[in-house]
Design goal:
It contains 10 helices and 20 strands. By secondary structure, it is of the alpha+beta class. Among the domains are: 116 residues, Beta Barrel (Elongation Factor Tu (Ef-tu), domain 3), CATH 2.40.30; 150 residues, 3-Layer(aba) Sandwich (Rossmann fold), CATH 3.40.50.80. α7 packs parallel to α9. Bound molecules: flavin-adenine dinucleotide. Flavin-adenine dinucleotide (FAD) binds next to β11, β12 and α4. Flavin-adenine dinucleotide binds next to β11, β12 and α4.
């Protein structure tokens, strides 16, 4: 089990020695002082200083004592005045009504590129390569498609999307509308030469509810059918919701279903595969990845290679719905994995430098919320309110489609 105190990274990093201040209600002072240093009483609540590597342990102790944590913040941001500690940075309870400023944000980096190419005047990229990602025995078609963008001003950041205008016209003879696709490569591209952008595209295929005939999606069929040398109309980039924080010691929790892996591939390649002078990731990245069958695990070999190479910094948890069983004997969906790991995840999301990202099928959020809600309620915390605050602090990011 991951524990901040034993993670190779955290224990050896500055964060290992950081102190956080918990504001706790419902504990008598004698209970609070029992095992901790420096508690300070203020009206109705107690402030407890906790070293980073004891955060989870302390949370459990507080819960056992019937206490309720109403805020957590780094101690260095809390100037002490007349024996009281001013509450500010970090997550605060809704009840306190105090304005908050997070310790880290997936902040809008300077110059997030947006809409460099609009639908009326798209960039014409060229398909360089296309590769099937679903292996034998898997379901459907998903392709990794790489485009040359070296001829214009198109550039992007991890977590952004581009728009594609498929060739041809719709049933009214009008040009097709754009469809958005999450970028699956880092800002430097798969060849690390700043000249390409890659997508991970599933060919949409369904039975028409009216006729029962097989229908293929327009743009996904266009993209998965491209051959090297083909031209493609590209717009964007767009999106600021899924940007990575600058903090190299952050905890990044990723929850993906199917092609929802695309932005996370970009994050992981940036964290572990590229040797960027301006970003040396030393935190924890934890990917939950839900697919139907093992051959549908996209980028499987590379992900597992990363796990082998960076066991202290990268955790990989699959939910393979048609092959694995959950605790009740049903299909193993991503939400079941979230529920299995909910206590640990709950501990992690409370750290001020943890960011959670959800990407993939619409509807996957419900089960995730159920798991988090079950875990937080053990500590007397209402998940809906807590999540709202996480979103306000730009630490809970969702892109589903
Ligand atoms: P269309 O021809 O547009 O058909 C879609 C329509 O078909 C639906 O609107 C619906 O009316 C109908 N339909 C679909 N399924 C059914 C069904 N089961 N029963 C009945 N009718 C149905 N896709 C990816 O593959 N990879 C990505 O990385 C990716 N990233 C995205 C990022 C964002 C921000 C968004 C918004 C979407 C993303 N998508 C991604 C989805 C993508 O934009 C397209 O929606 C998808 O490829 C389908 O487009 P299409 O043109 O092939 O289908």
């Amino acid at each position: 089990m991951y524990s901040p105190s034993i993670s190779g990274v955290a224990a050896n990093s500055e964060s290992g020695s950081r102190i956080f201040v918990y504001e706790v209600e419902g504990m008598r002072q004698s209970q609070a002082t029992d095992q901790t240093s420096n508690p300070i009483r203020r009206s109705g609540s107690v402030l407890i200083s906790v070293p980073y590597d004891r955060m989870n342990q302390e949370m459990r102790r507080i819960a056992r004592m019937g206490g309720k944590i109403i805020s957590i913040r780094p101690s260095n941001s809390a100037p002490e005045t007349n024996g009281k500690v001013a509450p500010e940075a970090g997550l605060q309870s809704q009840k306190s009504g105090e304005k908050t400023k997070p310790m880290t944000q997936a902040k809008e980096k300077v110059q997030v590129p947006v809409n460099l190419y609009k639908p009326a005047n798209p960039y014409i990229g060229k398909c360089i390569s296309t590769e099937e990602l679903v292996r034998e025995g898997g379901e459907g078609t998903v392709r990794h498609v790489k485009f040359d963008i070296s001829g214009g001003k198109l550039h992007y950041l991890e977590g952004q999307s581009i728009g594609i205008i498929p060739d041809g016209t719709d049933k009214n003879g009008k040009p097709h509308k754009i469809r958005l696709y999450s970028i699956a490569s880092t800002r430097h591209g798969d060849d690390v030469d700043d000249k390409t952008v890659s997508l991970c595209v599933r060919r949409l295929e369904y039975k028409s509810p009216e006729t029962g005939e097989k229908v293929f999606g327009v743009c996904s069929t266009f993209l998965t059918g491209l051959q090297p040398g083909d031209d493609v109309k590209i717009t964007g980039p767009v999106g600021k919701e899924m940007l990575l924080p600058d903090d190299e010691e952050a905890t990044i929790i990723m929850m993906a279903t199917g092609t929802g892996i695309a932005p996370f591939r970009a994050y992981l390649w940036r964290m572990f595969k590229e040797n960027n002078p301006d970003y040396k990731f030393r935190g924890l990245a934890w990917l939950f990845f839900g697919v139907a069958y093992t051959p549908n695990i996209l980028y499987k070999e590379e992900l597992e290679q990363l796990q082998r190479e960076f066991p202290d910094n990268f955790r990989l948890t699959y939910a393979i719905s048609r092959e694995q069983k959950n605790a009740e004997g049903g299909k193993m969906y991503i939400q079941n994995r979230i529920q299995e790991n909910a206590d640990e995840l709950w501990g992690l999301v409370q750290k001020p430098n943890t960011h959670t990202y959800i990407c993939g099928l619409k509807g996957m959020e419900g089960g995730i919320d159920e798991g988090m809600s079950a875990a937080s309620s053990k500590f007397g915390v209402d998940w809906a309110g807590y999540q709202k605050q996480l979103k306000k602090e730009h630490r809970w990011h969702v892109e589903t489609y």
